[in-house]
Amino acid sequence: DWTPESFVESTVAELKAKIGDDKVILGLSGGVDSSVAAVLLHKAIGPNLHCIFVDNGLLRKNEFEDVLESYQGMGLNVKGVNAKELFYDALKGIKDPEAKRKAIGKVFVDVFDEESKKVENAKWLGQGTIYPDVIESVSVKGPSATIKSHHNVGGLPDYMKLKVVEPLNTLFKDEVRAVGHTLEIDDAILQRHPFPGPGLGIRILGDVDAEKVRILQEVDHIFISSLKESGLYKDVWQAGAILLPVQSVGVMGDERTYEQVVSLRAVTSLDGMTADWVHLPYEFLADVSNNIINRVKGVNRVVYDISSKPPATIEWE
Ligand code: XMP
């Protein structure tokens, strides 16, 4: 019978046998999957695990600093790399969603490659790939069938010449959380909603720049912290805000405004393959909307996404 304890025990033993005294490099994202993969590997090989956490400038507000601190608290050997400007430069003027994903993926690989060269004699690349990532990337093979390219699957450039180790690639998300719980990883990390690799880059529709990121971080922060404060966060599978490439007319005091529109999105799901929009209480939505419009300069209208997957997807890009 599968239990998180038996999974941890057998996986740690397998990892030890497979990796021996080699060094492993692993890219942390702040999410559940890469964090659990890192702690499992750390349990197996200790300081031979070298983690790299890249700030792509597309993370949530304060995410990089907060998460880096909690990783260090967990005893992980982790290096934080600020690469914001490289990502913003690569994204400049790009509007097409797939082109944005590819640009983000490419800079990520370049930065990661640069950093991994600094770890001498590394033989392995650790990844937090989980089972649904494996099936989704297999089932969308071929250019015409490509739905959205997940840049963190099979994203290993040849020149990195590292063998891949993916300790979670047979697990679903709830199993990953259970394993993380057994490994005594902080609930703040385990209960965290999934967050896409390209981050806010695919929640800013159209071209991305630092100012749009700042606006969306503020909006997202108000939404997510309100969900946490009202106890709704744990009932939602994933939530976030989308900055629309649309301005609308509003009125503030006696003045006409012409500012951005944001959409809020919250879904329930088992594995991200299908999803339903969450019937958040009207009072809650009203409060969040007021807070966003009153506090975030540049936004004068908030809408709520009431589409399910399929036929919509969770992300808008
Ligand atoms: P969609 O939008 O396809 O998203 O319904 C399903 C789940 O996948 C996440 N997602 C991604 N995760 N890299 C990731 O790591 C990506 O490029 C990517 N695109 C979508 C999305 O947030 C949702 O949880």
**Ligands bound here?**
xanthosine-5'-monophosphate
- Side by side, the strands of the main sheet go 3-2-1-4-5
End-to-end distance: 39 Å
Structural class: alpha/beta
Query: For the CA atoms, what is the radius of gyration?
Result: 20 Å
Low-confidence stretches: 140-148
Question: How many extended strands?
Answer: 9
The CATH topology of the largest domain is: Rossmann fold
Helix percentage range: 40-55%
The average pLDDT value, as a whole number, equals 92
Total number of helical segments? 10
The structural domain count equals: 2
The shape is: globular
CATH superfamily membership of the largest domain, which one? HUPs
Strand content: 15-25%
The second-level CATH architecture of the largest domain is 3-Layer(aba) Sandwich
The succession of helices and strands, N to C, reads HEHEHEHHEHEHHHEEEHE
Largest sheet, strands/sense/barrel: 5 strands, parallel
Q: Provide the CATH top-level class of the largest domain.
A: Alpha Beta
Give the helices and strands, then pairings.
Blueprint: H1 4-19, E1 23-28, H2 32-45, E2 49-55, H3 63-73, E3 78-82, H4 84-91, H5 97-117, E4 122-126, H6 131-139, E5 163-165, H7 173-182, H8 187-190, H9 210-229, E6 238-252, E7 255-268, E8 276-277, H10 282-295, E9 299-304
Parallel strand pairs: 1-2, 1-4, 2-3, 4-5, 7-9
Antiparallel strand pairs: 6-7, 7-8
The chain binds xanthosine-5'-monophosphate.
The site of xanthosine-5'-monophosphate has 15 residues, from loops.
